[in-house]
Description:
CATH topology of the largest domain: Alpha-D-Glucose-1,6-Bisphosphate, Chain A, domain 3
Number of strands: 21
CATH superfamily of the largest domain: Alpha-D-Glucose-1,6-Bisphosphate, subunit A, domain 3
Radius of gyration: 23 Å
Helix content: 40-55%
CATH class of the largest domain: Alpha Beta
Shape: globular
Amino acid sequence: MKDFELRAQSWLDGDFDQQTKMQVLQLRNSDPAGLEDAFYKNLEFGTGGLRGIMGVGTNRMNKYTVGMATQGLANYILSHCKGDNPSVCISFDSRNHSKEFAKIAADVLSANGINVYIFDNIRPTPEMSYAVRLKGAVAGIMITASHNPKEYNGYKVSWSDGGQVTAPVDKEIVAEVAKITEPSMVKFESGLRCGEIMTMGADVDESYLKDLLSLSLSPEMCRKHSDLKIVYTPLHGCGVRLVPEILKRLGFENVIHVPDQDVSDGNFPTVVSPNPEEPAALKMATDMAEKTGADLVMGTDPDADRLGIAVRDNEGRIVLLNGNQTASILTYYILRRRAELGTLGKGKYVVKTIVTTELISDICARFGVPVYNVLTGFKYIAEVVKRREQLGEEFVCGGEESYGFNVGQFVRDKDAQVSSMMVAECAAWAAEQGMTLYQLLQHIYKEFGYRKEGLVSVVRKGITGAREIQQMMVDLRTNPPKELCGSPVVKVVDYLEPEKTGQPSSNVLQFFDEAGDVVSVRPSGTEPKIKFYFGAKGADADDKIEALKKQFCE
């Protein structure tokens, strides 16, 4: 027998429920390739937690892999966290099985003597981050696969600061989880619970909303332009609970819903993928904007940590903005308003990821605010916030090109709730200046120079796909491009060389040319894809982006 067949047989012979065994048998009898993919490896508990396709098998998200991950986390907490009565906060999104997986995690933690605060219903990832800090918990668990297709689910761990776990804690937790090799090692619910399970609800919502609203910079503008028409869609996810509420409390009276997408449904029936980065996901919302004459469209992903927006151009057409454009607009607005209000003094800073537009760096320089560059992933932004908080410095805002942004220090993850609030507020402020959000963006380009970014994600599924992605990175390291759009490559940065980059080791390559253009290549850590990020500057930036896509992806 091959290794995957042995693993499958162990599930048939072991102490697994009958339904699970029947599903394994069905795979073995009718789908040998599916059986191999489900059992060829253990679903990796990486530094961000778990993420994978739901189903039976060692390489799938199911109650057994969730239980094993939680037991490893519990073991780490009990051996490393000092003090009495450690607690963990748990939240979950609208995906299929999210509530079930959250309950399993709560039961396992409780059976290990760890207290649990679990939300009474779906809540966004950033509110889980907020709850960890509010409750003084040692960790947080969010059951979500973010914007992935409906087949996926995930298990994301945050630490006591509310940010996702980083070194050295991340690898230490991974090591503990790796020791849990079979479900029999998990205290799923052995006898009486010794850790208390407590429910969180409206009280945390209220505290969270109050703190986010305290970050408002132009409340009078919001009231003055309360008739601004905003279409909002949660794409069947968590955002429906709090985004409309925060907009209402700001004073906006014309928030228009997309009724079919307000329904929390893990099958995401109205979209192929619930990802606001993809134009198709916001099609129903932009259609609603055309129908109602709305000025602004906003959409959040299932766990409401990412925000996509669309605005009207000078001809009145609805156009989608990318994550770089939204982050640039928000950074400019926040820094300008804080400068006007006199709250942008010493010790304030901004953070962005290495693949996010350098336009943000230019904006920060204009206002005399330091900007820190970090690896891709909001956990690295949160790590900077944690470190600089100890120095008495204040995080103003920060973001990444993949539609993640955050403001202030209440939450240590990207937050579509506060982002929605700031986008709407910025639109009201722009209206007071006689501009639309689109015109504000053009104003920024005029002041700082035009930049264009592009992203291509090449999907390669399964075992052969993983190998192909690995080979792509080997080829780029062995044979790096000598030119970008005819301009000589002057610098290659390999983030597997931390001694040279000053960043943690990461499988990322960057190529810089003489003209100031940049290409970054990064295999996704959570999805079967490799990402190519393109950045170009100058009047011909649009043409350069298309040429770079052909050079690297065709």
